[in-house]
Design brief:
The protein has 407 residues and is an alpha+beta fold. It contains 13 helices and 17 strands.
């Protein structure tokens, strides 16, 4: 009998296989070669899925797979295109698991999907972007790349000759996110605000994804260079939701969890960084930045880590926008900070107390918060092109002063 199996490839090396069971569950088995090379307990694929001789059937595995996929209407559209039962992550990844976030590839064959690039003419690219949120592949091709999130986007590969479609598991290099076409969108010009905010991050010395605004035909889009791609190769990464075994539907931290998700990251994968103390400082700096700029969407899927041979480091900032300052409905920070989730009430003291709970020295925590606030305040005067609308810069300056006074 032919089994329903997806092989797991990491950096093109066979790491294991995932089998879908008759009851709808999934089972992961790592290869003996991986365990012999890296050792039992190594977090090579995910912090939530250490190497083990046992077969894994767990909510963490199901969550890991779900978090590789888009959410909401985008996922439903792909399920319809590929005739996959709604909610069947295994079934959908059979079709679009060849190019995922990080260096993992999932495919039914005995070799990692080699993929190929299909060159696109300018009119073809304009059409693909114009038709979003409908994912329309070039004629004769299918969508074979997957990326988490709700916002409509398309994954493309930039070559010296121009844009190309990553087919059959080929490596994508850029994310193209157009301005939402809905005139009732809650945050007008959201992609322009994201581009501006990430420029502020870089000007403040914070690692952040590189972005540019490009017009495709009549539609403006944010083009994001993937930080998990470098010099023609994949870098492995996972988001906090995958590391914590959290499903996409619960990416916003509830108040019922005993330990904060940030503290679990700091004491879990953070302890497996090459420099755990530095990891905690950088995490606090990133959390402080998100609070400063009013990022009311800083949930567990909008923080990620790079995994290098089982060691963890923070990924650059991405998907950051001052949504709270543009629409005060977006006040949920996404993660608890010393018990507080509302951007309206998070103070410097909350940030310091949260970091102290991770094991960071209080004096150092105050220094990191103050340094981040000063750096962002200084960066505001150097970044041009704040989109028209509310005076977000002044709100950020006020928040920086507030954090400095309250930490």
């Amino acid at each position: 009998m032919i089994r329903n199996v997806l092989n797991v490839w990491l950096h093109a090396q066979h790491l294991g296989e995932i089998e879908t069971l008759r009851n709808g569950g999934n089972r992961l088995r790592f290869t003996q070669e991986a365990m012999s090379t890296w050792g039992i307990g190594t977090h090579l694929l995910s912090f939530s899925l250490p190497l083990t001789t046992r077969r894994i059937e767990s909510p963490a595995l199901d969550g890991y797979l779900d978090n590789l996929l888009p959410e909401g209407a985008v996922r439903a559209q792909l399920e319809q295109q590929h005739r996959v039962r709604p909610g069947d992550a295994f079934g959908l990844l059979t079709h679009i698991g060849g190019d995922c976030a990080g260096a993992v590839q999932l495919a039914p064959g005995d070799e990692p999907p080699p993929g190929h690039l299909v060159p696109l003419s300018d009119p073809e690219v304009d059409r693909i972007v114009a038709e979003l949120p409908t994912l329309a592949a070039p004629e004769g091709e299918q969508v074979t790349a997957s990326l988490g999130g709700v916002q409509s986007k398309v994954l493309l590969t930039r070559t010296e000759q121009g844009w190309a479609w990553p087919a059959a598991g080929a490596m994508s290099t850029h994310i193209v996110k157009p301005e939402p076409s809905d005139p009732q969108a809650p945050i007008p010009r959201i992609i322009e605000w994201e581009h501006w905010t990430l420029q502020v991050a870089r000007a403040a010395g914070l690692p952040a994804a590189s972005t540019e605004l490009i017009r495709f035909g009549d539609r403006l889009a944010l083009v994001v260079e993937r930080y998990d791609r470098a010099v023609g190769r994949r870098l492995h990464q996972e988001d906090f939701a995958q590391a914590l075994g959290v499903r996409p539907g619960t990416k916003y931290e509830p108040s019922a969890e005993q330990a904060s998700r940030l503290s679990r990251i700091a004491s879990g994968p953070g302890a497996e960084a090459s420099d755990p103390s530095r990891f905690r400082r950088e995490l606090l700096r990133l959390v402080t930045f998100n609070a400063l700029v009013g990022n009311g969407d800083a949930h567990a899927k909008n923080y990620s880590m790079i995994i290098t041979d089982g060691l963890f480091s923070l990924a650059p900032a991405y998907d950051v926008a001052p949504v709270y300052y543009l629409n005060d409905r977006f006040s949920n920070f996404g993660m608890r900070v010393a018990g507080q989730r509302s951007l309206k009430y998070i103070t410097g003291r909350h940030l310091v107390d949260e970091a102290v709970a991770w094991g960071l020295d209080e004096r150092m925590a105050r220094h990191v918060v103050a340094e981040a606030a000063e750096a962002v305040r200084s960066a505001l005067g150097t970044v041009p092109g704040e989109p028209p609308g509310p005076d977000v810069s002044s709100r950020i300056e006020d928040k920086a002063s507030e954090l400095l006074e309250s930490s």
